[in-house]
Write a structure and sequence with these properties.
The chain is α/β, with parallel strands linked by helices. Helix content is 38%, strand content 16%. The chain has three domains: 206 residues, Peroxisomal Thiolase, Chain A, domain 1; 214 residues, Peroxisomal Thiolase, Chain A, domain 1, CATH 3.40.47.10; 27 residues, no CATH class. Helix 9 packs parallel to helix 11 and helix 14 runs antiparallel to helix 15.
């Protein structure tokens, strides 16, 4: 029943783009500071936006209508082709929400797509070329064609399979609330819609502006599967990404922290193949790194599988663990399936209350069709603040805390508003459009009205080759 197109002047927008407008607006409101402040502090070429939909826009206002219209005796519209592109969420953010003129685009990696975009943003900030990144994924796959396609792959839980699974309980109707059962006796996943966006700052900018610090991305690792038989089957690449993410966590926090104060957000799709392969990966990595009881959560048991956005679901929910002190249990799974590997692992089949100060890191795992494997290492807000103080000093952190009081209050007020009503999305259609008359060029810089200057006095990166 959620209809984001009723909240702004949507004009034949595919559903994922409607969700983009709403979701990206939500992320910006939650910042607790005006975007114009950020834009005044950061040159345009140092802001990037990476967001997309791995399945493109397949409802009628996108590619779905492009392919269906003639068969239905209708005319193909002028919007269905351009609005169907997979990177269009980033384009909408640039054109109608941020007015961004910096780097933009998306990387597509099936169910690991968000991790791919996150890695690009992290690399940009680590290299020093960018200071701000808006990263997200959006997927709206609830169309008859997509559902039928996944069903024909035997990937989805269906009524007959669920009834058969619960026959021993004497149930005559499918238990839809328990359709997704990661690492238990299961029959397939449940498709979901989702739109998730996060805003990343480099450390100096976060301290300067008093930004809310929810955590930090340590690193993101991507590996393909190599040679395969079925393109849709899992392979060896995910062993590499999980092991590298664990190693990166150990490198920053030490062995004891990884062993005692980390947990895993599994991809956990609720297919028989996933429960076997992913648990085997976690178990092998846990045993190698000396982890005796690695907590494993699987949020698709609540949210379903949002394809490109599933990794973003994991990231945002992980930030909630540090906010509220609860790791959600896999409540839909009554007991683990017999073929699930358990050595070194602690599958959370009940909610686990934790001290947020005692959880230093999280490993976020994603696996996608085609051999798209990605795993992220996420650091807690407590660890992040400790690292910021080490780099910038106590005085700077004191100033950050002072500036953050106003920012945090604005964020809290926005959260209260969200509890009572829908937000009004940011949508600047035909607003403050720039052209060549807004540019001012000199030998050293380019000035665009309303933006920080762009440096044109660049060093030669190939000076040793002249």
């Amino acid at each position: 029943g959620f209809q984001p197109d009723k909240l702004y002047a949507a004009r034949s927008h595919p559903r994922a783009l409607q969700m983009t407008v709403y979701g990206a607006s939500d992320a910006l409101y939650a910042l607790g500071m005006n975007w114009d402040l950020i834009r005044s502090k950061v040159p345009a070429e140092q802001i990037c936006v990476y967001a997309g939909s791995s399945m493109n826009q397949l409802d009628y206002n996108g590619y779905g209508g492009l392919l269906q219209a003639r068969l239905l005796g209708r005319k193909i519209t002028s919007k269905q082709l351009p609005l169907g592109f997979g990177e269009m969420p980033a384009d909408f953010i640039n054109a109608y929400i941020l007015g961004n003129v910096g780097n933009s685009g998306t990387s597509l990696g099936a169910c690991a797509s968000f991790h791919y975009n996150l890695r690009q943003a992290v690399r940009d900030i680590q290299s020093g070329t960018h200071r701000v990144a808006v990263v997200g994924s959006v997927e709206a796959p609830l169309t008859p064609e997509i559902i039928e396609a996944f069903a024909n792959m035997n990937a989805l839980a269906d009524d007959a399979s669920l009834r058969a699974l619960d026959a021993h309980l004497g149930l005559s109707e499918p238990d839809y609330r328990r359709a997704c059962r990661p690492f238990g006796n299961n029959v397939g996943f449940t498709l979901a819609e989702s739109a998730q966006f996060v805003v990343l700052f480099d450390d100096a900018l976060a301290v300067e502006l008093g930004a809310n610090i929810h955590g930090a991305v340590n690193d993101v690792f991507i590996n393909a599967d190599g040679f395969k038989k079925s393109i849709a089957s899992p392979g060896v690449g995910n062993y590499l990404t999980v092991a590298r993410a664990a190693a990166a966590t150990r490198a920053v926090l030490g062995e004891e922290s990884l062993q005692q104060r980390s947990f895993v957000q599994a991809h956990g799709t609720s297919t028989p193949q996933n429960r076997v392969t992913e648990s085997a990966i976690f178990s092998k990595v846990a045993d190698h790194f000396g982890i005796e009881a690695w907590p494993v959560a699987a949020l698709k048991s609540y949210l379903g599988h949002s394809i490109a956005c599933s990794g973003a679901d994991q990231l945002v929910m992980t930030l909630g663990v540090w906010q509220h002190g609860v790791i959600p249990g896999i409540l839909t799974t009554g007991e683990l399936a017999e073929d699930v590997s358990t050595s070194g692992l602690d599958f959370l089949l009940e909610h686990r209350e934790v001290d947020p100060l005692a959880i230093d890191s999280a490993i976020l795992n994603a696996k996608g069709f085609g051999g798209n494997n990605a795993t992220a290492s996420l650091l807690s807000p407590t660890v992040t603040r400790r690292m910021l103080e080490k780099r910038h000093g106590k005085a700077a952190l004191g100033q950050w805390q002072k500036h953050n009081e106003t920012v945090a209050a604005a964020s809290a007020a926005y959260q209260q508003q969200c509890s009572h009503t829908h937000i009004t999305p940011i949508y600047h259609y035909d607003h403050d459009v720039r052209d060549g008359t807004d540019l001012e060029l000199s030998a050293a810089e380019l000035k665009l009205r309303g933006y920080a200057a762009v440096d044109l006095d660049l060093d030669n990166p190939y000076g040793d080759m002249r």
